[in-house]
Amino acid sequence: MCDASTAAPGDVLAAAPRTAPGEAVDPIALEPVDEVRITTLVDNVFDALLTGDDHVKRVSFGAGAGVRAPQFEGGTTNVGLVAEHGFAALVTVRRGDRETSLLFDTGLSPDAMVNNADRLGADLSGIQAVVLSHGHFDHAGGLAGLAGRRTGLAAMPMVVHPYLWTRRRLAVPGGDPAELPTLSKRALETEGFQVIERRQPSLLLDNAVLITGEVDRTTDFEHGMPPPHQAWDGAQWRHDPLVIDDQALVVHVRDRGLVVLTGCGHAGAVNIVRHAQRLTGVPTLHALLGGLHLGGPAFEPIIGPTVTALTEMAPALVVPGHCTGWRAQHALAATLPDAWVQGSSGTTYLLTT
C-alpha cells in the first residue's frame, strides 16, 4: 500500500504548476474569517471508536436519543450515525461574534442527512443557503429530507452550476447502460428552494465563503471520468469526462490560509486547490477536506502525482472522504502523517486563527 505514495519519475513533472489558459475571474475579495467549523453530516464511513482532539470532535454510539428496540432490556438501544455512499457537510463560519452557516451537498438518501443532524443536535433551520458541488445523485438525495423540514419557511437559496441538471448514465462495456437519477429544477423550486445558477465564482455569507464555479484544468494528469461516464447532449450520449458542474467551497482562515472543501473533486484535487489559490491570491493551503475521487482502476494511476503535489502544498489538515478510495487514503496517510485524519460521519473539524 506504500507503493501508491511513492512518486514515479514523471510524477513531479506532471504535478508541476501550469498557467491556466484564458481569462480568470480574479482576484476574488474573499474576506478572512476567525473560525470555520465543518461537520460531516454524511460520509461513506462511520467509526464510533475514533478519537478526537481540540480540533477534531468525534461522536460515538451514544449520539442522540436511544431508539426503540424491544429486544433489549428497557426497550431501547443506542445508535451511531448513518454512513452511505454520499457526502454532506454543515459549514459554519465565524467573524468576531457573528456566525453563519450553509449546507454543502446533502448525501445519498432522503433521510440520512437529517437523521444524522438530529442525532448530533445540529439545527438545520438556521442555514443561510445550500450549495451543491455537482449533479450526481449521491450528493443531492438528502434534499428530499431537508425539504420536508422546511414547510412554510421562506425560500432557501441554492447555488448550483447550470449544468447540474445534465442527464448522465454509466455505460460499462458488456452491460446495459444505467441512467443516473437527475435533479428536477421545477420540483426543487416548488419545494421552496430559490435556485441560483452560476458558472462563475460566487461569494456567500457576507463574502466569507467562495464557491469556485468552473475549475481551471491545468494539470496534465487529472483527466476526469473514464469513457463509461456519459452525458446526454440533447441528441445523443457522449463521454462526459469533465463533469463541468463540479465546484468546491473555499474559506480563508485568518493567518492560516485556505480551507478547501470538495464534494467529489471531479475537477481534480490539485486543479481545485490551485484554482482557489489563483482566485483568492492566498498562496497557503491550510486544509483540504472531502471527496478526492481517486478510487478504482481509472483513478489509481494518478494517486502518485496527486500526493506529490499536495505534499508540496504542505497542508496542516487533510481529511479525504467519500470517493477518495482506500489506496489513496493509505498513500496520503503515509506521506502526510501529521496532516492526514480519518473522516467519519458526524465528525466536526474546527479550524481557527
TrEMBL record:
Any Pfam family matching the protein: Lactamase_B
Domain Metallo-beta-lactamase: 95-171
InterPro entries to which the protein is assigned, alphabetical: DHPS-like_MBL-fold, Metallo-B-lactamas, Metallo-beta-lactamase_dom, RibonucZ/Hydroxyglut_hydro
SUPFAM superfamilies linked to this entry: Metallo-hydrolase/oxidoreductase
Protein known as: MBL fold metallo-hydrolase
